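ARCHIVE CARD
SHELF: 3
SLOT: left
DATA:
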Amino acid sequence: MYRIFSHFSRSFPFHLKPKLLNQEGNHGHLRKVYKKISVFQSGLSKLHPKRDTRIHQTAKSFHIIPDAINIRHCREADIKTFLQLTRKEGWDNTEFDCRAVLKLDSSSFIVAADDADTPLGFIVVFDMFSDTCYSGQLIVKDAFRGRGVGRKLLTALWERIGEKNLCIYSTENLIESYRKQGILLESIRSIAYRGIITSGCKELKTNENECDIVPLTDHIWHDLLAYDSIVYKGKSREKILRLWFVGEYVYTVVAFSKGKVSGYGSFIKADDNQYIIRTVFGDNSKVVDEILDNMLARIPLGAMLTFVLLADKEVPSRFSGFEPTIVTQTMSTKFKIETESDKMFYICYHFV
């Protein structure tokens, strides 16, 4: 979701790390052997019963898939499996995110399943704008990596995209790999951080407030969306923001300066003691500090906090004890997403 940004060699898209299986050879070799056994099994059994049994058992022991990988849409029962896989990778996916994607478009959450309909892997891809698709997490179960599941999911991805622009987040070490896949254009760099909320994080960084910070309500949605459209140079993210910025565990605020919107911010409570800043945009760093003051007042001491900060923005002193976890690059296939990046501070990996 990569988080499609990702740990490319471990899970994320457009490539799955090849693995040597054992001394019998690599996966490709065993697949060929397996197919030959399937076609000529009775004849081989008569000529070389021991060899046939040995190779057949070897194939089974490595869970080789004889092309029986089915692509379908995600169902309610699949969410638990998806979250188990992503949490193992250390990603910040929540059940809330999964349900937001399903509400957006059930066909956007794609599953690769075996003949018993057991999920083997997942990929997320949806229309971000009328001309652009965003692809997030691609992940495959450990036991099935390097065995064709990822390729099936990627085929489904490219079919879903068609002629549209594709936008992803990539880790720095995977940029060259994505370029080979035709994802050539680079724009915003960002860094994810994680740390524990201390009293120092909550110290007010602004003595004289220049903003009125107001919780998001129905009657100011228009103001937030108008500001967001300025940041994205006329493009509308309304359908995305309305799904991710409202919910039982979501807190979203809008900053007003002299009666006009000067920024907004949002975070989600992901677990009992884990919180994620999803977005903070503002006219300047002072506005952003006031938004953070307001949001952090609602996060308890000792809680784990995760956020993604644009690489060209300075880490605030309140977060000086936080550790960087990953550096990412926004990449796309046909054109860059144009933004007023000077107003962008904290972003979300679940959409562009």
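SLOT: right
DATA:
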Amino acid sequence: MEISTRRLKLLAILGYFLTGITGGVIIYGSEKMIVATKTPILIFMVWSGLVLVIVSLIGIYGVIKINFGYTVLSSFALVVVSITLINHLMYAIIKDRSEVESDRKVLKLWNRHMLMGRAMHKIQDRLDCCGIYGFQDYILNDKQVPVSCVSEELVSYIYKQLGCKEASLREYLFSRNFIIFSEFTSLLLNMITAVAGFKLCSRIDRGI
């Protein structure tokens, strides 16, 4: 049974709306993670989320105004974004380098810290960790354990026990899983919305 034009419009509007919401969630989540794990993947996700928000606004406008050009443009843009997301998903799943990337980041910050003194404070505050393997790293390098390593919890330990290498890996894995889930959700919404948009364009073109 063929869907009526009115229901098709409502489905397209709902699809674009949910796509925009998904884009906003992707931007919010990615920006929060960038504070601790600034990687090309997360930067890509921020831009992807921004594109989804813009495309959804164009799509909603096109459907409400029965504008063929805007509706085609937004539907085609969703297909392009979906293809990009598929490629990115395959890369994220097949070529996962979580441990390598997190180790590289922490070691780079630690080496800078040994030279300049304050490079790791931000990540130690953000990830609630200390040193590479623990606060003992400072003692072994004849350095004073910084304030950012002091535990704020009411426990028997004075300093944070978790090393930033392990904390960074946890954060990186969480980021990766968030990205995969977000991209799968966005991909599904994009395909449904694009199909509804193209069907609506066909009816607009025929004057139905």
